[in-house]
Design goal:
The complex is a heterotrimer of chains A (334), B (324) and C (269). Chain B is built from twelve helices and two strands. Chain B has 324 residues and is mostly helical. In chain C, the strands form two sheets. In chain C, strands 6-7-8-3-9-10 form a six-stranded mixed beta sheet, sandwiched between helices. In chain C, strands 2-1-4-5 form a four-stranded antiparallel beta sheet, covered by helices on one side. The chains are: A mainly alpha (334), B mainly alpha (324), C alpha/beta (269).
């Protein structure tokens, strides 16, 4: 397929770029990310924080979809589980991060383990439908179980997260401090996922995506690897959900709905599946567009749907794919 | 073949879930049937009506997947658009329900043809994921189109005065419309079954589900069959939407609500078979209806428990074929 | 995970592979009707027979892709009937496929690396970059070199020629250092030059490795096989040394009754 030729061309091109130039871009982005709170107005900063949070969410789905080839339409389930657990723990137990965060991650892990175990045994399309169905079940639970989850109104009255360092909490109340907190977590997750993806385990996942049957024939217990990827992705989605609750001090059933699963899927595809950085770019694009468009019109979903369709039909490999193509074209001219 | 331990875990889990379902659903059901049989029967009829509506949608979805290998996530949108288009037709034509009943599915079928020819064809070769993404994008867009044109309020489809009022069943009044819907649904199911099992067109469709390449090799224009099946599926879903309009109401979001249920039905019943979508719809529809009556807070969880049980014991559904 | 071939002292009387009464039914069709035979360690056994005789089904039953309707499979004397394919692979069984079953989007080297990685049990390592595991790459390169694919190591498999892809098909299986290797029509669709290269490749495989080869090209069969098993309609028609099979009248009868394009040339090589 043409994409592989582009990849090979892009690889050659990247090899030709000098080492300094290769590090320039990430370094520059890092400087920007660290420096921007000083210049950005508040609402843009919280938008950027949201981008980072959804970047984590999108990367977690990329691990499943882009790398392992598991098409999950219910990834919002784990985002929501993390979000609600963090909120409920803060309300009922303690707003200390040391309490709410591990609980949120643990709950997401447990949900991913159970749902994963039931879904992974099924083949391709069934997997897709099942993940969607399970997420909707959780949505229904969040929607109806009013005494616990606040029902359709969502979970409110969540105290701000604290680290126990300052009496009365509120170390993270300052949006700039919270931004740096999220940025730190984002960078750690990105670095961690990069290592995972480049490790033998990561290569195994790609192998499963490329030819599951042959992987079995050469000795890999494919089901176990899929489940591992599923749980890892679920935990990271739960992390994003918890961070989102810390940001908004609010959790709503919509976070579990197919709309959220769809939104993160769009981010991954538009950004470029299987690239890790692509989904982050996709998250940025989607959230930015959403903010821009919804100030002018209510028809945001239609526009996003149309943009998505255009990408699927014409730019299947997303923003990163377009970038690779450009680089390859430049390399051929050089 | 799986190692014995794995099978044991699955059986145990399935047993646990069956126990849960029995305790939460079956026992209260039996109790209801014994203490208030008329109520139970009325609910059974409601469940039947719901099942038949789901059946129309699930069959279309299942056939489209079976014969075209396409997962059409926009199928719920067909259902929704059927209801809303009918709503407009009824409004414009001076409350002519029958016209809407006829025209909406036809219109929907046409839209289906356009969609299939224009957008799906180029994506067939690309595999399941791309089809899923594309149909998902469409569903998203349709959802918002509906919201734009018709607004976000909950509506109900007005229906013909002929069907208003009640009939008497076991000494209790039962809405005439629902009763008519049940009869209509059963007749339609029978017609569909006859069409699939007893006509040449039906056997072409069934052969196409089993092996599209072979059918094409026999000189039959398989792409025309694809388009026809897609349009028929869309029309069926739209028809279901029109019938459901007065019973279940109309609101944005009904597309995905119904899609989820259709997906569950297809998972439980098995993809690509008439028997699968029929019995799957019956099982899920009745379980869901009684669930809502007996355990309103956990009805969704019960449906999912049923699904989980079937999956643990039969991963390809009750009547599904394991795609080798 | 996998031990090297012949590190466990196995008495030579235990066959590397034994099947007993293997039967496989698909609905009303009996693909395999009770097949029994044993293959000695290090033996090169050819499985031949007309199309539809059940050869690939036999391989599928042995390698765990399918479960037998009845019958048993013994690997080095251990009953492995019904085990899933990944467990059989870990026990030293590997196979190639009649139709290329490769990782098309990856390079040739990456294809073989996955197999080496599996053999060394490193698939679970999630933190070390894969490139730092130089032994894996080195071993993969050795396998590629043995099969004449080293210059093409960085080419995405999609762009390899058919013959190169068939060689890679074997490379992946060989990289897992199996004790028993099933080769399903390795020379299918190959030109004479490619067939000769493949025959040399197979002949160069370690002598401790037990080979079962499904083949239609009788030149290849007679060049490589120690023994031949003939399958017909899911049953064993003949089983013995190449000369004996060639002169077996029933075998000749079966092949004579076939259309000219189906009957392999039984002439002397």
């Amino acid at each position: 397929m043409e994409a592989i030729r582009v990849e090979a061309g892009a690889r050659l091109a990247k090899a030709r770029l000098s080492l300094a130039r290769r590090w320039a871009l990430p370094a520059g982005v890092l400087v920007l990310l660290i420096g921007c709170p000083l210049v950005l107005p508040q609402y843009l900063l919280s938008l950027l924080t949201e981008v980072l949070i959804f970047g984590i969410f999108a990367m977690s789905l990329d691990l499943l979809l882009g790398y392992t080839g598991l098409v999950s339409f219910g990834h919002a389930a784990f985002f929501g589980v993390g979000a609600y657990t963090a909120g409920l723990a803060a309300i009922r137990l303690s707003p200390h991060l040391g309490v709410t965060l591990p609980l949120a991650l643990g709950a997401a892990a447990l949900a991913a383990l159970v749902i994963g175990y039931l879904c992974i045994r099924t083949a391709g399309i069934y997997f897709l439908m099942l993940t969607l169905a399970f997420a909707q079940v959780l949505y229904a639970v969040a929607f109806k179980w009013t005494p616990v989850t606040g029902g359709s109104n969502g979970l409110s009255g969540i105290p701000r997260p604290t680290l126990g360092l300052v009496p009365g909490g509120g170390e993270l109340a300052d949006p700039i401090r919270f931004y740096f907190f999220v940025l730190l977590i984002f960078l750690l997750v990105y670095y961690g996922l990069r290592r995972v993806v480049n490790s033998p385990f990561g290569h195994t996942l790609v192998g499963i995506r490329e030819n599951e049957g042959r992987m079995r024939a050469i000795g890999y217990d494919v089901a176990r690897y899929k489940l591992a990827a599923f749980v890892l992705a679920g935990v990271l989605a739960g992390l994003a959900g918890a961070l989102n609750t810390y940001l908004n001090v609010f959790a709503s059933p919509a976070q579990l709905n197919w709309t959220t699963s769809g939104q993160v899927l769009v981010m991954v595809i538009i950004g470029g599946a299987g690239t890790l950085i692509g989904p982050v770019l996709g998250a940025a694009l989607v959230l930015l567009l959403q903010n821009l468009v919804s100030t002018h019109t209510d028809r945001w979903p239609m526009i996003m749907g149309a943009v998505f369709i255009i990408f699927v039909l014409l730019a299947r490999f997303g923003i990163v794919g377009i970038w690779d193509r450009l680089v390859a074209r430049l390399a051929r001219r050089a | 073949m799986r190692p014995v331990r794995d099978v044991l875990v699955q059986r145990l889990l399935a047993l646990l879930l069956i126990g849960l379902v029995t305790w939460l659903l079956v026992v209260p059901l039996v109790r209801l049937a014994v203490t208030a049989p008329e109520t139970a029967f009325i609910q059974l009829l409601n469940g039947l009506a719901y099942s038949l509506l789901i059946f129309l949608i699930a069959t279309g979805f299942s056939l489209i997947f079976g014969i075209m290998d396409v997962i059409n996530l926009a199928h719920g949108s067909f259902y929704m658009l059927g209801a809303y288009i009918a709503y407009s037709i009824v409004g414009r034509s001076g409350d002519n329900f029958w016209l809407a009943l006829l025209a909406a599915p036809l219109g929907r079928g046409l839209i289906g043809v356009v969609l299939e020819l224009g957008y799906l064809r180029p994506v067939y070769r690309r595999g399941h994921l791309d089809q899923v993404l594309l149909t998902f994008g469409f569903a998203y867009v349709f959802s918002d189109i509906v919201r734009t044109i018709w607004g976000a309020d909950i509506r109900s489809l007005p229906y013909s005065p002929l069907l208003q009022g009640a009939v008497e069943i076991l000494g209790r009044p039962y809405p005439k419309y629902r009763f008519a819907a049940i009869i209509f649904g059963l007749v339609l199911a029978l017609l569909l079954w006859l069409l699939l099992e007893r006509t040449r067109l039906g056997s072409i469709v069934r052969a196409g589900v089993a092996d599209p390449e072979m059918v094409s090799g026999l000189g039959i224009n398989i792409t025309a069959v694809f388009t026809a099946v897609f349009a028929a599926g869309a029309a069926l879903a739209a028809l279901s939407g029109v019938i459901a309009g007065p019973i279940l109401g109309m609101h944005p979001g009904m597309d995905f609500d119904v899609l989820i249920v259709a997906l569950i039905v297809v998972v439980v019943g098995g993809l690509g078979t008439f028997a699968g979508s029929f019995w799957g719809s019956l099982l899920i529809g009745i379980a869901d209806t009684f669930g809502k009556v007996l355990q309103p807070e956990f009805s969704m969880a019960l449906t999912f428990a049923v699904m989980a049980v079937v999956l643990l014991l039969r991963p390809t559904g009750l009547f599904g074929r394991s795609t080798a | 995970m996998l031990s090297e071939p012949a590190t466990r002292p196995t008495p030579d009387t235990i066959p590397a592979l034994r099947v007993e009464g293997l039967r496989r039914q698909f609905g009303g069709v009996t693909a395999l009707a009770g097949v029994s035979f044993a293959v000695a360690r290090g033996e090169r056994r050819a499985i031949i027979g007309p199309n539809g005789a059940g050869k690939t089904t036999l391989f599928n039953l042995i390698s765990g892709e399918l479960a037998p309707t009845s019958g048993r499979v013994y690997l080095d004397g251990v009953d492995v009937t019904g085990l899933p394919s990944h467990q059989l692979a870990r026990r030293g069984l590997a196979r190639t496929f009649q139709r290329n079953n490769l990782f098309l989007g990856l390079t040739a080297r990456e294809n073989v690396r996955l197999a080496v990685q599996a053999r060394r049990g490193l698939g679970h390592r999630f933190w070390t970059p894969a490139e730092h595991l130089r032994e894996v790459t080195a071993e993969a390169d050795r396998v590629l070199a043995d099969l004449g694919l080293l210059e093409r190591a960085d080419v995405p498999v999609r762009h390899l020629s058919y013959g190169e892809q068939r060689q890679l098909e074997v490379a992946i299986a060989v990289a897992t250092r199996p004790r028993v290797l099933l080769l399903d029509e390795p020379t299918a669709g190959m030109s004479p030059a490619e067939t000769a290269a493949m025959t040399r490749t197979i002949a160069a495989l370690p002598p401790e490795m037990t080979l079962l080869i499904i083949e239609h090209d009788m030149d290849v069969v007679f060049a490589l096989a120690d023994r031949i098993t003939v399958l017909h309609y899911g049953e064993i028609l003949a089983d013995g040394e190449p000369e004996a099979v060639r002169q077996n009248p029933r075998v000749a009868e079966v092949y004579m009754g076939l259309a000219a394009d189906e009957a392999p040339r039984l002439g002397a090589s």
